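for the recovery benchmark. tokens below, seq after
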């Protein structure tokens, strides 16, 4: 993906199309607090934007045999989105298709809508509504701030809190009758996860941003109880708390 974007750069740099090619390396793949791959992964992506619309593709490649899929893409996501900038708020809406080449029964799709206010801490609220497999909703509230570290560096800090509907929790954290303890989802929606992320982007050359990062995530409530009851190596590696680092390179044209 990166090579293709670089090859297209001469034509795109002077046109109306914005292209971002990203190549991140992470020590784990954690999604919404769920440990998908408990070892190193590559997550390349390619986005093309025109008149507020964005078309993108993202993938996760395992770099170890922790899931017996070394060197293979375990997930490929496709995105169609639209961004609208208003005086005090930015609105984003889009469609996501999640494709799992080795587990096609888990394929699903979501619509999402988010709003970010242009005020102190840039508060943001997003909702993702599953329309295929789970028919549940996931809400994410987050804040962020950049701390100037010098003329060329800025430390970007972000924190977020997730909440899932009853359908979302039942879909991603199903009850296992063989376990000695089973979660009770009778209360409906529940807080699901919390994260803190810190990254330090810098620009060694034009068109390139390099950003080392560290992230801590934690499952909360019913999801935490469900995953904690699974032996290590089971669902989401039996881990309710995860700390991982990353290094990403973003090519923008």
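predicted aa per position
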């Amino acid at each position: 993906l990166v090579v293709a974007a670089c090859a297209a750069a001469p034509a795109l740099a002077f046109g109306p199309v914005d292209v971002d090619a990203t190549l991140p390396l992470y020590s784990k793949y954690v999604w919404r607090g769920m440990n998908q791959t408990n070892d190193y992964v590559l997550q390349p992506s390619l986005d093309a934007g025109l008149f507020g619309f964005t078309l993108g593709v993202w993938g996760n490649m395992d770099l170890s045999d922790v899931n017996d899929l070394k060197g293979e893409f375990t997930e490929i996501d496709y995105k169609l989105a639209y961004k609208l900038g208003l005086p005090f708020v930015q609105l984003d809406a889009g469609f996501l298709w999640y494709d799992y080449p080795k587990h096609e029964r888990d394929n699903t799709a979501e619509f999402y809508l988010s709003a970010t206010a242009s005020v102190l801490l840039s508060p943001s609220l997003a909702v993702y509504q599953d329309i295929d497999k789970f028919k549940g909703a996931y809400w994410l509230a987050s804040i962020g701030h950049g701390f100037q570290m010098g003329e060329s560096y800025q430390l970007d800090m972000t924190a977020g809190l997730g909440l899932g509907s009853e359908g979302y929790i039942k879909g991603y954290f199903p009850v296992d009758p063989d376990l000695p303890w089973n979660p009770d989802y009778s209360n409906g929606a529940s807080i699901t996860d919390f994260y803190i992320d810190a990254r330090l982007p810098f620009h060694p050359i034009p068109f390139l941003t390099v950003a080392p990062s560290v992230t801590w995530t934690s499952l909360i409530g019913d999801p935490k109880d469900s995953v904690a009851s699974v032996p290590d190596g089971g669902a989401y590696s039996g881990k309710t708390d995860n700390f991982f680092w990353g290094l990403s390179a973003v090519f923008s044209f």
